[in-house]
């Protein structure tokens, strides 16, 4: 019987298994995950579960028993290498595969010299979340290093819990590289309006472990920022070392074609944060660390492997959301392609602001601050690369409703 081995029991791995069965695949499936838990969702780790408003069980990704999918699950087991067409596990066993799906995600990047200290955290796993939640519950102040989305969400959760929060960011404007300066400033304002101290353009030189048990950051200008606990959210790293046996370059992730097949292989696929797909809409290679991409890629890979019709829309555009202070920020498309940004809806406050990103006069992305209905209206226009004029008339029409 054909055997599909899926390595990585997170969002991409689990959805691949589910979509395989949904597409009628009747062969053997094995799912390998190095975490002890059944697959769970990560977005609540910086939001509801960190805040304590959801029980952990609510993050479970699969409703029902995994066994009902007819999958052999190896939890708490790492894939450590390949031996021909077999995956080597850390207990010495091997899983021979006909098709291998790699959905191993990414790991949080640590800063050089970042100490292992019980009050200094990164956030990727349920264990990370539990430890950070424990610190937040005891602390009066939090230091956030890195004003990216994870840092911003943790800052928001901690502020709502009543902590004093200081955010350190190396760039002059948070999110400037992703969202541009104008919208980056609005994201920073969302923090400062809610009482967070945001210090931009700073360089962290070292961490100092406080005698009282807290942590402090020493900055290049000689100042020290101390807090009871801290979190470092400075991006992610890829770990493809165990895939060296494939004999393909894994720099920048697993290089996949538009169906997820790792280029240079005939039976290995990449899904989710680890996978740099040649994007069907844009043509270039993109590694997208977004929830929706992992889900969509899992569907495409599963349908290919099962020999079923591929139902993914050809006009798929990346989608991301973030929840902060009761507002949902949503982004569709690609800001990185933009040469100009224009406010499409400007209610004079953060909530309801919608910005359009244009490249050579065509709409390439839309960012909305808690305007889901409007955002949905622009989805089709982003996919179609609508002209500035079309977008402006759509904005006028939507504003008049
Ligand atoms: C705190 C947090 C909040 C987020 N919030 C949002 C959000 O609001 N919106 C959004 O769009 N996205 C969000 N994301 C991103 C989203 O969760 C990821 O894009 C998604 O989880 C990617 O799925 P994945 O399957 O690629 O990786 P993962 O979900 O990370 O799963 C990979 C699994 O593989 C395991 N693994 C790694 N190496 C091995 C190995 N060698 N052997 C066996 N197992 C291995 C890992 O431990 C992990 O369990 C958030 C992420 C985090 C961490």
Task: Describe the structure using short key phrases.
9 helices; 3 domains; FAD/NAD(P)-binding domain; 5-stranded parallel β-sheet; single chain; 401 residues; binds flavin-adenine dinucleotide; alpha/beta; 29% strand; Enolase-like, domain 1
Structural description of this entry:
The model has no long low-confidence stretch (mean pLDDT 95). It contains nine helices and 26 strands. Strand 4 and strand 5 form a beta hairpin. Helix content is 25%, strand content 29%. Helix 8 (372-384) runs antiparallel to helix 9 (388-399). 42% of the residues are buried. With 401 residues, the chain is an alpha/beta fold. It has three domains: 3-106 and 238-306, 3-Layer(bba) Sandwich (FAD/NAD(P)-binding domain); 110-232, 3-Layer(bba) Sandwich (FAD/NAD(P)-binding domain), CATH 3.50.50.60; 326-399, Enolase-like, domain 1, CATH 3.30.390.30. The strands form seven sheets. Strands 3-2-1-7-19 form a five-stranded parallel beta sheet, with helices on one face. A five-stranded parallel beta sheet has the order 9-16-10-11-12, with helices on one face. The N and C termini lie far apart (58 Å). The protein binds flavin-adenine dinucleotide. Flavin-adenine dinucleotide (FAD) binds at residues 7-13, 32-35, 42-43, 45-46, 78-79, 103-105, 123-124, 150, 242, 272-274, 289-292, 294, 320-322.
């Amino acid at each position: 019987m054909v055997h599909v081995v899926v390595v990585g029991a997170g969002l991409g791995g689990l959805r691949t298994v589910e979509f395989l069965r949904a597409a009628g695949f009747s062969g053997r499936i094995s799912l390998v995950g190095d975490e002890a838990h059944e697959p769970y969702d990560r977005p609540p780790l910086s939001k509801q579960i960190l805040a304590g408003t959801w029980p952990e069980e609510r993050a479970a990704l699969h409703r029902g028993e995994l066994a009902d999918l007819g999958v052999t699950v190896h939890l708490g087991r790492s894939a450590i290498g390949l031996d021909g067409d077999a995956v080597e596990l850390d207990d010495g066993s091997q899983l021979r595969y006909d098709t291998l799906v790699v959905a191993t995600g990414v790991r949080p990047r640590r800063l050089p010299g970042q100490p292992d200290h019980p009050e200094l955290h990164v956030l990727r796993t349920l264990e990370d979340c539990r430890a950070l939640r424990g610190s937040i519950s005891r602390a009066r102040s939090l230091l956030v290093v890195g004003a990216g989305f994870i840092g911003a969400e943790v800052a928001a959760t901690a502020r709502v819990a009543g902590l004093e929060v200081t955010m350190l960011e190396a760039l002059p404007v948070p999110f400037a590289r992703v969202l541009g300066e104008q919208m980056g400033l609005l994201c920073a304002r969302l923090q400062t309006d809610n009482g967070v101290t945001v210090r931009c353009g700073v360089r962290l030189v070292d961490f100092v472990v406080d005698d009282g048990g807290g942590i402090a950051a020493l900055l290049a200008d000689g100042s020290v920022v101390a807090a009871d606990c801290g979190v470092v959210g400075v991006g992610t790293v890829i770990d493809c070392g165990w895939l060296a046996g494939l004999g393909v370059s894994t720099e920048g992730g697993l290089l996949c074609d538009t169906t997820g097949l790792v280029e240079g292989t005939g039976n290995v696929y990449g899904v989710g944060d680890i996978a740099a797909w040649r994007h069907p809409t844009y043509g270039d290679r993109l590694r997208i660390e977004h929830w929706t991409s992992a889900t969509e890629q899992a569907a495409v890979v599963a349908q290919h492997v099962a020999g079923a019709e591929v139902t993914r829309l050809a006009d798929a555009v990346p989608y991301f959301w973030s929840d902060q202070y009761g507002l949902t920020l949503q982004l569709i498309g690609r800001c990185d392609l933009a040469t100009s940004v224009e406010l499409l809806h400007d209610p004079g406050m953060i909530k309801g602001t919608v910005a359009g990103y244009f490249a050579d006069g065509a709409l390439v992305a839309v960012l909305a601050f808690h305007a889901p209905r409007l955002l949905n209206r622009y989805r089709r226009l982003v996919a179609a690369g609508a002209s500035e004029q079309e977008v402006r008339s759509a904005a006028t029409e939507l504003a008049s409703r």
